[in-house]
């Protein structure tokens, strides 16, 4: 609520009170693990009564009354790094000499009672397009303004003074003052709304929540349209901005949320843990979704399809919904004690989403999708020198962003699949039920989870935890088939760490091996591989296998590299493998050989283009063509690329135009064609496509039109600027503006690069999501010489990015800048940067090493193919 002007005079500056920011003390920047540990032993039963006035433009006045029980005498430290702390009242008395240093407020022990305490604080917090806890989004279509919060992982203390650590859960009640025509949404149910002031505003009150962690607190406000569904078994309201409401498929989004909640209630044998569930489609949202209890936020851009979606896009949307709903139990009901255990919630949400998808959408090929969406990403990071264990130490919450990435999002669910396979699905489910029952509305660690599953399965999971949760890196399995002197066929599996960081010694791997028989039959053998090598018994009296694959059903977490004999067979017969899940993995294994510089990228591309002509599986076509794109543009040296291009273009053009194939197959052909087209005739074809109303067998709509325009800009087609101008006029709403910005980043001239690079840091009106979306265009591989001067400045900016940008931005930034380079000189420059900056925090060094690996492979592959 607005404060009287007099209160402003009391505003505390960061130096009043004599406390200073010191990295080594409890009141240093961020929230240290030491502070969190001390507070967890001191504070209990927290409640926040929060109120915000959202009628201001660039900031919000707020108040919070924090009630809590103190167990032992001592100073009480609250965290706050918002714009301004104005007044503090402790147990009814104004605190006259507050110790506030811009990060923490210390309430001296003499003002604190053992037992109940009430602290009321008034403050000001920032509202901005980026870099604030309250994000403002301006809709370019109708000029409407929308606000929403996003606090994960460490920004609750930017919004209001609090104990910002996941294991001090609080019951939160909320009051929002907002313009009269706005709708509001929060974790709790809205209980009342009445006109305020002169009727220009309204005050909304929300019911107190169950105990939730601070990073999960959320609200949104704006002239949203609301949608409900008659098909939902529970009342779920979807909030979407007015200008997009007509396009949003409210019914199917709501029904998928409802179905997930019901499925999980049965699986966990626990009712939905919060009193209500609503969903919001948030514009310019930097993540896929955020699991706020009772108020899930989804990425509007990914949830509203502006053109006919492919199966992959539809499955991705459903999987995101399942992931966020699973978090209501895993993450929200039971929360990690500290962000070192981030994997607990993320690994589970993704793994449960796949289980749910396999059960609810039996035709979705859910485990194939799980493989395609997780394993390549996990292996691509876990095989690098920058990898980390699944459980990652974290000394301060302000570094928590670095713990996000492929290891927790893609490796963690993958090792859970291995665990499920190891103990069996019944013991796994009973273990999860036991875990949730023991820690409901509380916190837990990974050891609690393994002990619950261990207890239900009757086996110790100590070694499993040591190898998969605490040890960095991953195994590579090499297969070798041969015939022994006495004429018997032998199959040997050997495992080794993907890199030296893991140290020596085998992982305990439970897998099943697929063995192709000359007569076309497929035999499976279950194998426990917990030594460096194992001999797999083969069916007696049979001829040597045609092919072998040591990870049937993708239960093992290991990179399987096929033997030469298998590769030869696959080159002739991969399309004859009937099981599409297995086919997807075999294509993956061939691609892994390309990335190991053992299989020529042109050979892979030729095989792919030939075999995909008859491939019926949409997910496989999309995945393999993506690799064809990377192989053609980055792995082939320029001369070989230019000579291969006309053939690649021709096959892609034929695929996208083939009237006998469905849209879901033709669309990835079109996407890849747009990505690789480079000859003047192909660019002319692309240009001509913009004059037609249809492509790949469906109406040609804005997203694909923009992708074509961006390609024309990037490749300096003669018509490019004219096309950009025309498209901007035709699609002038907020989405069009975003796409025009993205296209501009791909302009192949030095001034454009300079301007964009400057704006990435200096333009406060830029939404972070726009910047992220433009990075790949900025770093187009064909422009590597133009962007080479930005490689080191991009690395120099990492500390700033870590402070000022959200979770996934830093990874996207690094990947884009490094994947845009292909030369040994660029690789050397990155290595020199690392040697010269050994003082860089370890997490940032690791992120660079993770991203550098693909550049190192690219250089190696190009070197190996140069001589062929
Ligand atoms: Zn998640």
Explain the overall architecture.
With 868 residues, this protein is α+β, with helices and mostly antiparallel strands. The protein is 43% helix and 19% strand. The protein is built from 30 helices and 31 strands. The strands form 7 sheets. Strands 1, 2, 4, 5, 8, 9, 10, 11, 12, 13, 14 and 15 form a 12-stranded mixed β-sheet that branches. Strands 16-17-18-20-19 form a 5-stranded mixed β-sheet. A hairpin with a 2-residue loop joins strand 30 and strand 31. Helix 10 (425-439) crosses helix 11 and helix 17 packs antiparallel against helix 18 (663-676). The longest helix is centred in the last third of the chain and has 25 residues, at 842-866. The radius of gyration is 28 Å and the shape is globular. The protein starts with a helix and ends with a helix. Residues 1-24 have low confidence and may be disordered. Bound molecules: zinc ion. Zinc ion binds next to helix 6 and helix 7.
């Amino acid at each position: 609520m607005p404060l009287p002007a007099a209160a402003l005079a009391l505003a505390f500056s960061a130096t009043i009170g004599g406390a200073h920011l010191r990295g080594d003390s409890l009141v240093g920047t961020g929230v240290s693990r030491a502070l969190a540990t001390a507070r967890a032993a001191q504070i209990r039963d927290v409640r926040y009564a929060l109120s915000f006035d959202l009628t201001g433009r660039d900031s919000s006045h707020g108040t919070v009354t924090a009630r809590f029980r103190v167990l032992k005498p001592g100073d009480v430290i609250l965290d706050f790094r918002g714009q301004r702390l104005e007044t503090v009242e402790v147990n009814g008395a104004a605190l006259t000499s507050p110790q506030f240093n811009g990060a923490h407020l210390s309430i001296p022990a003499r003002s604190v009672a053992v037992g109940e305490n009430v602290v009321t604080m008034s403050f000001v917090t920032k509202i901005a397009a980026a870099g604030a806890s309250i994000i403002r989004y301006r809709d370019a279509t109708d000029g409407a303004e929308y606000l929403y919060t996003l606090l994960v992982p460490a920004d609750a203390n930017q919004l209001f003074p609090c104990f910002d650590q996941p294991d001090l859960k609080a019951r939160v009640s909320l009051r929002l003052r907002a313009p009269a025509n706005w709708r509001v949404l929060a974790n709790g149910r809205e209980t009342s709304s009445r006109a305020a002031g002169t009727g220009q505003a309204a005050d909304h009150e929300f019911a107190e929540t169950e105990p939730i962690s601070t990073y999960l607190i959320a609200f949104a406000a704006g002239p949203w349209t609301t949608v409900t569904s008659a098909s939902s078994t529970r009342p779920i309201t979807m909030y979407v901005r007015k200008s997009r409401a007509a396009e949003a498929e409210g019914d199917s989004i709501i029904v998928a949320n409802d179905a997930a909640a019901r499925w999980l209630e049965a699986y966990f044998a626990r009712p939905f843990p919060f009193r209500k569930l609503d969903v919001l489609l948030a514009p310019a949202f930097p993540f896929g979704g955020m699991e706020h209890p009772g108020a899930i936020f989804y990425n509007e851009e990914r949830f509203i399809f502006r053109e006919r979606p492919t199966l992959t896009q539809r499955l991705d949307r459903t999987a995101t919904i399942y992931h966020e709903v699973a978090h209501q139990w895993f993450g929200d009901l039971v929360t990690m004690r500290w962000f070192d255990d981030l994997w607990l919630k993320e690994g589970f949400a993704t793994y449960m989403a796949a289980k749910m998808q396999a059960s609810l959408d039996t035709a979705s090929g859910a485990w194939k999708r799980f493989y395609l969406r997780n394993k390549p990403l996990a292996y691509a990071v876990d095989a690098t020198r920058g990898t980390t264990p699944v459980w990652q130490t974290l000394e301060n919450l302000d570094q928590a962003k670095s713990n996000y990435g492929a290891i927790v999002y893609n490796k963690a669910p993958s090792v859970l699949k291995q665990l499920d396979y190891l103990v069996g699905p019944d013991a796994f489910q009973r273990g999860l039920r036991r875990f949730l029952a023991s820690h409901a509305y509380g916190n837990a660690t990974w050891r609690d989870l393994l002990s619950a599953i261990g207890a239900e399965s009757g086996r110790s999971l100590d070694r499993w935890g040591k190898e998969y949760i605490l040890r960095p890196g991953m195994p590579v399995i090499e297969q070798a088939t041969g015939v022994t002197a006495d004429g018997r066929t032998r199959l040997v599996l050997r495992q080794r760490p993907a890199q030296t960081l893991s140290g020596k010694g085998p992982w305990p791997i439970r897998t099943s091996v697929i063995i192709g028989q000359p007569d076309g039959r497929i035999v499976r053998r279950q194998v426990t591989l917990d030594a460096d090598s194992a001999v797999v018994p083969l069916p007696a009296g049979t001829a040597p296998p045609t092919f072998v694959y040591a990870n049937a059903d993708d239960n093992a977490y290991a990179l399987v590299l096929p033997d030469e004999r298998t590769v030869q067979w696959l080159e002739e017969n991969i399309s004859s493998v009937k099981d599409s899940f297995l086919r997807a993995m075999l294509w993956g294994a061939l691609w892994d050989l390309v990335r190991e510089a053992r299989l020529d990228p042109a050979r892979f591309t030729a095989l792919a283009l030939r075999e995909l002509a008859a491939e019926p599986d949409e997910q496989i076509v999309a995945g393999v063509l993506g690799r064809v794109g990377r192989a053609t543009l980055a792995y082939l040296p320029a001369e070989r690329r230019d000579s291969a291009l006309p053939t690649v273009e021709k096959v892609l053009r034929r695929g996208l135009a083939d009237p006998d194939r469905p849209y879901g197959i033709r669309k990835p052909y079109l996407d890849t064609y747009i990505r690789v087209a480079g000859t003047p005739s192909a660019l002319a074809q692309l240009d001509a496509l913009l004059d037609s109303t249809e492509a790949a067998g469906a109406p040609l709509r804005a997203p694909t039109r923009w992708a074509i325009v961006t390609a024309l800009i990037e490749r300096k087609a003669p018509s490019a600027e004219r096309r950009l101008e025309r498209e901007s006029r035709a699609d002038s709403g907020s989405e069009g503006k975003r796409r025009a910005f993205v296209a501009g980043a791909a302009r192949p001239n030095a001034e454009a690069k300079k301007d964009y690079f400057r704006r990435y840091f200096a333009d406060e009106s830029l939404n972070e999501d726009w910047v992220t979306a433009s990075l790949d265009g900025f770093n187009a591989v064909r422009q590597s010489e133009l962007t080479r001067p930005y490689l080191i400045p991009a690395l120099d900016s990492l500390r700033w990015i870590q402070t000022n940008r959200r979770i996934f931005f830093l990874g996207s930034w690094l990947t884009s800048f490094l994947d845009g380079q292909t030369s040994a000189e660029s690789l050397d420059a990155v290595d020199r940067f690392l040697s010269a900056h050994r003082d860089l925090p370890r997490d940032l060094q690791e992120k660079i090493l993770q991203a550098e690996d693909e550049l190192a492979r690219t250089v190696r592959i190009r070197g190996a193919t140069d001589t062929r």
